[in-house]
Specification:
- Strands 6-7-8-3-9-10 form a 6-stranded mixed β-sheet, with helices on both faces. Strands 2-1-4-5 form a 4-stranded antiparallel β-sheet, covered by helices on one side.
- Helix 2 runs antiparallel to helix 3 and helix 8 runs antiparallel to helix 9.
- Helices cover 64% and strands 10% of the residues.
- The protein contains 18 helices and 10 strands.
- With 586 residues, it is an alpha/beta fold.
């Protein structure tokens, strides 16, 4: 058994152990139902022995009715045990599955920014769903197949050995051979089940990626290429599915042959015993009943075990995520960040992406309380990386970042994010109402506070024009709104949050000139009494900043006010300004 399979079972067991009482009584009910299922044929044996006993009709009828009443009681308890089991199983499985889903959700969201950048959303969603559904499959197989199988076979073997040692031991030998063959087949097939599960994930990944980029597929004539790619990965999945299914077909053919051999052999032995006078008609009925139970249970065993391992294989991909340590975690002695002034300092910061692409080497930057600083520079210079490091979306490999003298690595991530408002370049919204999206910045905000934030962000007007107003759903990622509308909703959310530190990452990039002029007034109000970091390629948006820091290749090459930097001959900022100056008047 692979290490991840053991880990999967451990995760499941941890969640099962929370519901020991219901689990225990569920198993008791299963055992009771299984035992009663095997006891009933003993009385059917007695029924047929009485029927052919040769006594008077009246005596036989009375004896048969007595046996029938006993069978009725046994069947009633069989029914009762099953009803108890089914209701407990519904409670037990639903509770454990819900807990597993929450565990996956909580752990997945604790992974770093980099982790989500390197994994497809569709693939992650499928892994979570598979992990939960695999538990349901495993629980079903243990509850309805394996536990009844063990109890039924155990009782049947004991009864038959007591009845006739030769018949009982013959079934034991046959079962041993059958189970050994099953075990080796399952072990052989398991590696292909894992490969098939990985192939299914790859198909989902390609499907999710192309659907997300459906516009690019159309506009760049990529339809045939994407169909070819999807067909390729899907054909690989088809090949693996066909191979694993055919393996099952081959084994079931062998399994059926072994069962025919057992049935004919046992009845042949029964006939010989009947010739000797040690076997009755009722014994034949008992034997047939038990063989039918054995066949039903043992036929399921092969299929159940193969599907059980397939469920484990399906769950392994999520187990890998749960076993992947979070890249960024709070230190054991982390405290809440207290922001009184809002001073930010980068001191000798060293950082590289994936240890191969160095961004900063001994980077230093100090931002005064309530200072408004703009970061300017060519693409790839490190501007956005500065804000990501401040938000601790990545951890630095050297130096330190401080807010009011507190190292952000020594404070809790929740308290860090609570004190920083971010307006990102790509405004992504939840597929929820506009009210919920804006209120996400402050969950306990009143409706009036939400309306006021929307007014300050100049989005109250267009929201009011919607038939459902603030109860309008924005679609996945906010696709029902224009880029400018999404940006203003995100700005309204930041206004509502009112954190002491504000980060604007291309916050006006999706706005037209008219909207930008409106929003600048809102941003001016938003930036009052806050420490502000602004990233912008459109230099017209940062003219009023207290300080402009020009970054190139991970270093500060210039800094100063807009006016001072324009006076610097041959300056980087001046060249950038001249490139964009067509149409902007200071």
């Amino acid at each position: 058994m692979k290490d991840n399979t053991k880990k999967t079972i451990q995760y499941y067991w941890q969640h099962i152990s929370k519901y020991k009482v219901s689990g225990f009584f569920m198993v008791v009910g299963l055992i009771g139902a299984s035992i009663s299922n095997v006891i009933a044929p003993l009385y059917f044996k007695k029924f047929f022995d009485i029927l052919v006993s040769g006594q008077s009709t009246e005596i036989i009828a009375q004896a048969l009715i007595s046996v029938l009443m006993i069978i009725l009681v046994i069947e009633f308890f069989h029914w009762l045990f099953w009803r108890i089991t089914t209701f407990l199983a519904s409670y037990f499985q639903s509770m454990v599955m819900a807990d597993l889903a929450v565990t996956c959700f909580e752990y997945l969201h604790k992974h770093s920014f980099s982790y989500f950048s390197n994994n497809f959303v569709g693939s992650l969603v499928k892994r979570v769903n598979r992990f939960v559904r695999s538990f349901e499959g495993l629980a079903d197989k243990f509850t309805w197949n394996l536990i009844p199988l063990v109890v039924n076979l155990g009782v049947i073997i004991v009864v038959l050995i007591l009845k006739n040692f030769a018949i009982g031991i013959s079934i034991v030998i046959w079962l041993t051979v059958f189970l050994i063959i099953n075990w080796f087949f399952i072990k052989y097939k398991f590696k292909y089940d894992i490969e098939r599960a990985e192939s299914e994930t790859k198909v989902t990944r390609v499907l999710a990626d192309t659907i997300t980029n459906h516009t690019n597929v159309k506009l760049f004539n990529g339809y045939d290429r994407e169909v070819g790619l999807f067909t390729k990965v899907n054909n690989n999945l088809k090949r693996l599915q066909k191979f694993t299914w055919n393996l099952e077909n081959y084994f079931e053919a062998l399994q059926g042959f072994l069962m025919i051999g057992l049935e004919i052999g046992i009845f042949y032995l029964g006939i010989r015993l009947w010739e000797q006078g040690s076997f009755t008609v009722g014994d034949f009925v008992l034997l047939q009943s038990y063989i039918l139970i054995v066949f039903m249970k043992i036929w399921d065993f092969g299929r159940v075990m193969r599907h059980l391992y397939r469920d484990l294989a399906d769950a392994e991909e999520m187990t890998e995520i749960l076993e992947t340590s979070h890249e960024i975690v709070d230190s054991h002695d982390a405290k809440d960040l207290k922001v009184a002034k809002g001073e930010i300092e980068f001191s000798d910061v060293v950082f590289s992406y994936r240890k191969t692409r160095k961004i900063f080497s001994k980077f230093n930057l100090k931002i005064k309380p309530n200072e408004r600083v703009a970061l300017v520079g060519p693409s790839g210079s490190g501007k956005s990386t500065i804000t990501r490091l401040l938000l601790r979306l990545h951890d630095i490999s050297g130096g330190k970042i401080l807010i009011d003298g507190q190292r952000i690595k020594k404070v809790t991530q929740d308290s860090l994010w609570r004190n920083i408002s971010l307006v990102p370049q790509d405004p992504i919204l939840f597929h929820r109402t506009l009210m919920e999206n804006i209120r996400y910045g402050k969950t306990d905000a009143t409706d009036e506070e939400v309306f006021e934030a929307a007014r300050l962000a100049y989005c109250h007007e267009f929201i009011s024009e919607f038939p459902e107003g603030y109860d309008t759903y924005v679609g996945e990622r906010g696709v029902k709104l224009s880029g400018g509308e999404r940006q203003r909703v995100v700005i309204a959310r930041a206004i509502l949050r009112n954190a002491p530190i504000l980060v604007l990452d291309e916050a006006t990039s999706s706005l037209d000139s008219g909207s930008e002029n409106l929003i600048q007034n809102a941003l001016d109000n938003l930036m009052k009494d806050k420490t502000v970091i602004v990233i912008a390629h459109r230099l017209s948006t940062i003219m009023k900043m207290d300080r402009i820091v020009v970054i190139d290749k991970g270093d500060i090459v210039e800094e100063g006010t807009h006016t001072a930097l324009l006076k610097k001959r041959g300056g980087v900022y001046k060249k950038l300004w001249e490139l964009q100056a067509g149409g902007f008047i200071e």
